[in-house]
């Protein structure tokens, strides 16, 4: 049931739709069938053409293809192969100050260099050997320290 009309509305008649109520009655569809008595539906927007429905998936496919090519280029394995072909004695800014037979001797040599204020680290060498590495600018001083420590 509808609410009563507001008394301040001129010409309010609760028995007539659209008069006295805060809504406007729609025109009724004339005809028979399931749409009889309902308001007609009107499309006011532009309906997408078939070409738009094809372009969207094509753009998505192109973006995924470009993404795949970028990933293939980035992770092609060439950089890993270059690293594997690098010489064993190339340590960049570091230089080999000595190679010893076991880890215990390498750690002792490293500790001796660290106590003298020389930054040192260890790296595995082919076989069961261990290399002691220092920065190139400290190499001469480290070699003098190692030469004094050698029996």
Q: Quick one: how many beta strands? A: 3
CATH topology of the domain at 94-149: Alpha-Beta Plaits
Could you say which overall geometry the principal axes of the C-alpha atoms support? rod-shaped
Low-pLDDT windows of residues: none
| Broad CATH class of the domain at 94-149 | Alpha Beta
Biggest pleated-sheet summary: 3 strands, antiparallel
Question: Structural class per helix/strand content?
Answer: alpha+beta
CATH superfamily of the domain at 94-149: Hypothetical protein rpa1041
Indicate the radius of gyration in whole angstroms: 43 Å
Task: Write structural notes for this entry.
With 151 residues, the protein is an alpha+beta fold. Helices cover 37% and strands 12% of the residues. Among the domains are: 44-86; 94-149, Hypothetical protein rpa1041 (Alpha-Beta Plaits, 2-Layer Sandwich), CATH 3.30.70. It is rod-shaped. The chain starts with 49 loop residues before the first helix and ends with a helix.
How is this fold's topology laid out?
Layout: H1 50-74, H2 78-84, E1 94-100, H3 103-115, E2 120-124, E3 130-135, H4 139-149
Antiparallel strand pairs: 1-3, 2-3
């Amino acid at each position: 049931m509808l609410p009563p009309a507001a008394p301040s509305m001129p010409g309010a008649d609760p028995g007539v739709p659209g008069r006295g109520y805060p809504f406007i009655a729609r025109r009724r569809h004339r005809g028979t069938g399931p749409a009889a008595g309902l308001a007609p539906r009107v499309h006011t927007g532009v309906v997408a053409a078939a070409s738009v429905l094809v372009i969207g998936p094509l753009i998505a496919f192109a973006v995924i293809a470009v993404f795949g090519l970028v990933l293939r280029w980035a992770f092609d394995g060439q950089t890993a192969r270059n690293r594997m072909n690098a010489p064993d004695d190339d340590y960049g800014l570091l230089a080999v100050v000595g190679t010893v037979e076991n880890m215990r001797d390498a750690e002792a040599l490293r500790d001796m260099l660290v106590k003298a204020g020389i930054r040192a680290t260890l790296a595995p060498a082919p076989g069961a050997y261990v290399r002691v590495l220092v920065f190139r600018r400290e190499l001469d001083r480290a070699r003098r320290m190692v030469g004094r420590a050698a029996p």
